[in-house]
Design goal:
13% strand, seven-stranded parallel sheet, alpha/beta, single chain, globular, Rossmann fold, six-stranded parallel sheet, 2 domains
């Protein structure tokens, strides 16, 4: 039961499935405590709404509009991918406002991911408390522990602090020029003052910030915002009593040795080379291959031995990873967490966004290895996997961090923090630090 009266809470994720699921995880916990949940979400992910009939849904845009972004090849380029995401954020400002204005709901709390800028500004104008969720450390730069912003920028992680500060200044100047005109025009419409810096005005604009990762993944730094608190990864162990797996998947998993699972993200439709590498590397290693992703498998897939290869557009990773020898993936934070919880080695093939930084952190933890997409071939992938699968230290590290995740339950403290924040805001008090 909730420790407070029933609250009206808006969830505003921005991004792909890996950005949506963590807010659903939190929303489910808050709903179980008696709170009323409203979710603003693209119809592309209507499947998440269908299993939560008690939630109110505000559909943002159309399936085709979201699909068009996933089909855009720029999305997976290091620099242009970031530009495309920021363009989409700016394009969402007015549509989100229209939905929220039309909802006629007196929300007590707005919870959104890093780029839920429209919902956060709308809430600020109405004096509604705002809880911002950072899903990965890339959102929190530091001169003491600099994230890897993109492949090829490893030098910056080891540069002197004055060099990092200079680079950060240049990045901010570029982003201010790109982002602030549109954001400030929107804020003026809401009766808000303009912001002058992307850090306070966009990246860290919440009254409070929750880091959805543990301190052993990235320890708090002295130059992080003081209003952030780390809660751990958004993971809840799956009950054994859950419904059975798809019959074809269960048959494949039970038919032989544990396979290596290959996946390149729920929003990536440009995976031909990745899929072809999965087939070639599996043949070199003599391992079974489970390929999962929304894009079609490579040409000739139907002729592959059915007991050795299986393609599925989707699979419940939280239940399948533990039955695999290793996972090869793009480095998305959601996939990474599920693999850590399963205790299996990870080979990361990063492309853009937070993926290179996540790959570096997994290597530092000793649970996986990174391989540049530009160098991805069946022999290079097979060699990396062979090393991971034969390494006692990798097995030890996987078991160690699996135990860490399974021992953590951040939801009680996180829900209490959110409730306290909402109640203070509702009573007209200043948000807590």
């Amino acid at each position: 039961m909730a420790a407070t009266a029933s609250l009206s809470i808006l969830l505003a994720p921005f991004g792909s499935e890996g950005d949506v699921r963590p807010l659903l995880w939190l929303g489910d916990a808050l709903a179980a405590r008696g709170h009323r949940i409203t979710l603003i979400l693209t119809p592309y992910y209507k499947k998440f709404v269908d299993v939560r009939p008690a939630w109110r849904w505000l559909p943002l845009g159309t399936v085709e509009e979201f699909a068009a972004v996933t089909r855009d090849p720029r999305l997976w380029e290091p620099r242009r991918g970031t530009e495309l995401v920021l363009e989409q954020m700016l394009a969402s400002l007015q549509p989100v406002r229209a939905l929220l204005d039309g909802a006629h709901e007196d929300f007590d709390l707005v919870i959104g991911t890093t780029l839920a800028t429209s919902a956060f500004a709308w809430a600020e104008a109405r004096h509604i408390s705002r809880l911002e969720i950072h899903l990965q450390p890339l959102c929190l730069r530091s001169v003491d522990n600099c994230p890897l912003f993109m492949e090829g920028a490893e030098w910056l992680c080891h540069a002197p602090k004055f060099v990092k500060r200079a680079v950060f200044w240049l990045i901010d100047k570029m982003l201010n020029r790109q982002m602030l005109p549109g954001v400030n025009a929107y804020r003026v419409q809401l009766g808000l003052p303009p912001v002058h810096d992307v850090n306070d005005g966009i990246w860290h604009c919440g009254d409070r910030i929750a880091g959805f990762f543990p301190s052993w993944y990235d320890a708090p730094q002295r130059d992080w915002p003081t209003k952030i608190r780390l809660f751990g990864f958004p993971y809840t162990p799956v009950a054994e009593s859950d419904k059975p797996l798809d019959a074809a998947l269960e048959k494949f998993l039970a038919a032989g040795a544990p396979p290596i699972l290959w996946t390149h993200g729920s929003a990536n439709l440009h995976t031909e080379h990745f899929a072809e590498t999965a087939v070639g590397a599996s043949k070199i290693l003599g391992t079974r291959c489970l390929l999962v992703g929304p894009a079609a498998p490579p040409a000739g897939w139907p002729e592959l031995p059915p007991g050795q290869f299986l393609y599925l557009p989707h699979a419940p990773f939280e239940r399948v990873f533990a039955r695999c020898r290793a996972v090869v993936h793009h480095g998305g934070i959601g996939t990474l967490v599920q693999a850590l919880a399963a205790g299996v080695p990870q080979l990361v093939i990063p492309r853009a966004h937070d993926q290179p930084d996540n790959a570096r952190r997994l290597e530092n933890l000793g649970v996986g290895a990174a391989l540049s997409f530009r160098k991805l071939t069946p022999p290079t992938a097979a060699a990396k996997l062979h090393t991971l699968l034969d390494s006692p230290s990798v097995r030890t590290a996987c078991a160690r961090y699996q135990k860490q995740i399974l021992a953590d339950d951040p939801l009680p403290a996180l829900c209490a923090w959110a409730e306290e924040m909402a109640c203070n805001g509702r009573l007209g008090e200043a948000p807590l630090p």
